[in-house]
Design brief:
Blueprint (H helix, E strand, L loop, with lengths): L14 H13 L12 E4 L3 E4 L4 E4 L2 H4 L8 H13 L11 H13 L6 E6 L2 H16 L3 E5 L8 H6 L17 E4 L10 H15 L4 E6 L15 H11 L3 E5 L23 E4 L10 E6 H4 L15 H14 L4 H22 L3 E7 L2 E6 L9 H13 L2 E2 L1 E3 L5 E4 L7 H25 L1
Parallel strand pairs: 3-13, 5-6, 5-7, 7-8, 8-9
Antiparallel strand pairs: 1-2, 2-3, 4-10, 9-10, 11-12, 12-15, 14-15
The structure holds ligand PLZ.
Ligand PLZ binds next to helix 5.
């Protein structure tokens, strides 16, 4: 069976998208990039249709947000029913039930065999910022530990926590202090679990444990390059933080909520954060984020200390309740594991066949392919960008990532049609082969 998509009727971007993009340049601040300057008119579980009538295969999910599809019927039903009731009260003014139900679901599903509480916000960065506030209130300590290559957001504090300078931090400093970075156990480029953990213990000894409220870590790094840390690294962080009275904050904003084939990526390593952060897929595109964690830690904050006008907006809470219904379908997580098998089946043979393919990695529907020189591991951002651009021209939406920009990441909706996924991967692998072969022939 062949897939009827991608279905291209113009060049990508087409004339209408190009016209809108020109209008955008006159109206919208220049600081926003665009991975693919195409304007979308409709979406399905697997595809995006643009204003020129082209249908693209979606291997991005709006950066891991539309995990249940960008036009999910349950989300639509719940959100439209809420639209008919009311759009906003501000939870700090008058309350509504869905906020409580979302908190209850997260309390019972987030890893950790302890009594939990949840606080809802709107963006991922806001969840990270609030986790820091909560950790400081609970411990009475100031500092925050973060790891190399981490990404935690674009607000001033979360930029300080994010590793990569350009484009996130360039010209925006100074940043809040008391953020200290420790090595990551990056299997391709790092020194291994033991060395990374020894460096953390040294840093804690240098500053004194009482300097640090929390260590914040992504269980699988997102923007940093889909780095699945060496086995034992997360468990080591769990042990060392506990020994030093430092709270472990697990940032599941990109990797959580089914993306890796388990409900939470921390489950692969059998760890539980004292606080766990979710966003992105939580609201299926309606802005919603959460801090979920130990009741005693969460409730260390005084009444009135947490909030925000839109925190836990009622439309977004309804969307989250629909997402939970999807995540509870017994076939969903097995389907995600099948997505990983399909992606590995297509990409892994390239590792042996093509010198510039340095690594194929990831979990579930969070998979990546890294391009680098075979001998020196010198990153090949140029190749990743060229291949990604060729995929776009062929109607497959891929994204790049990584500290060096040399990684192509695949984030298909968890509900993508398997036939469409196969087709997208055939196009991607053909482009990787032809681009790399042409280069090898020229060398
Ligand atoms: N923590 C692990 O992945 C957001 C950033 C896109 P916000 N990642 C996508 C961009 O270039 O702005 C992210 C993340 C992790 C925190 C965040 C921040 O989430 O909802 O973008 O604030």
């Amino acid at each position: 069976m062949t897939s009827p998509v991608p279905h291209l009727v113009t060049d990508i971007p087409g004339p209408r998208s190009r016209q809108l993009h020109a209008e955008r340049e006159r109206a919208v601040a220049r600081g926003f990039g665009a991975a693919l300057p195409v304007f979308v008119s409709h979406a399905t579980a697997s595809t995006l249709e643009d204003v020129d009538g082209n249908i693209l295969i979606d291997l991005a999910s709006g950066i891991a947000v539309t995990s249940v599809g960008a036009a999910n019927p349950r989300v639509r039903e719940r959100v439209s029913a809420q639209l008919d009731r009311f759009t906003h009260t501000c939870f700090m003014v008058t309350e509504y039930e869905s906020f409580v139900r979302v908190a209850e679901w997260l309390n019972s599903h987030v890893p950790g065999d302890f009594d939990k509480r949840t606080a809802l916000f709107s963006t991922g960065a806001e969840a990270v910022e609030n986790a820091v506030k909560i950790a400081r209130a609970a411990t009475g300590r100031p500092g925050i530990l973060v790891v190399d290559e981490a990404y935690h957001g674009r607000s001033l504090l979360t930029m300080a926590m994010t590793a990569k300078e350009h484009p996130y931090k360039t010209s925006f400093g100074p940043f809040p202090g008391d953020v200290v970075r420790v090595p990551n156990a990056n299997p391709l480029r790092g020194e291994g679990t033991e060395a990374a953990l020894a460096a953390l213990e040294e840093t804690i000894a240098e500053h004194g444990a009482e300097a640090f409220a929390a260590l914040v870590v992504e269980p699988i790094q997102g923007e940093g390059g889909f780095v699945v840390p060496d086995a034992g690294f997360l468990a080591g962080l769990r042990r060392i933080t506990a020994e030093n009275g430092i709270l472990l904050v697990v940032d599941e904003i990109q990797a959580g909520l089914g993306r890796t084939g388990r409900l939470f990526a921390s489950e692969h390593e059998g760890i539980a954060g004292d606080l766990t952060l979710t966003a992105k897929a939580l609201g299926a595109g309606l802005p919603l984020s959460a801090v979920t964690g130990r009741a005693d830690v969460m409730d260390a904050v005084h009444i009135g200390g947490l909030g925000g006008t839109y925190a836990g907006n009622p439309l977004a809470c309804e969307a989250a309740l629909a997402v939970f219904e999807e995540l509870e379908k017994p076939e969903l997580l097995p389907d995600v594991r099948r997505i990983e098998e399909t992606i590995r089946h297509h990409l892994e043979p390239l590792e042996a066949a093509i010198d510039a393919v340095a690594d194929v990695r990831g979990r579930g529907a969070m998979m990546a392919i890294e391009f680098a020189d075979a001998e020196t591991l010198e990153p090949r951002a140029d190749l990743a960008q060229r291949i990604s651009a060729a995929c776009h021209a062929a109607g497959v939406l891929t994204l790049t990532c990584g500290t060096f920009g040399n990684v192509i990441r695949l984030l298909p909706p968890l509900v993508i049609d398997p036939v469409v996924l196969e087709r997208g991967l055939e196009i991607l692998t053909d482009i990787i082969r032809s681009t790399c072969r042409a280069e090898e022939a020229a060398a």
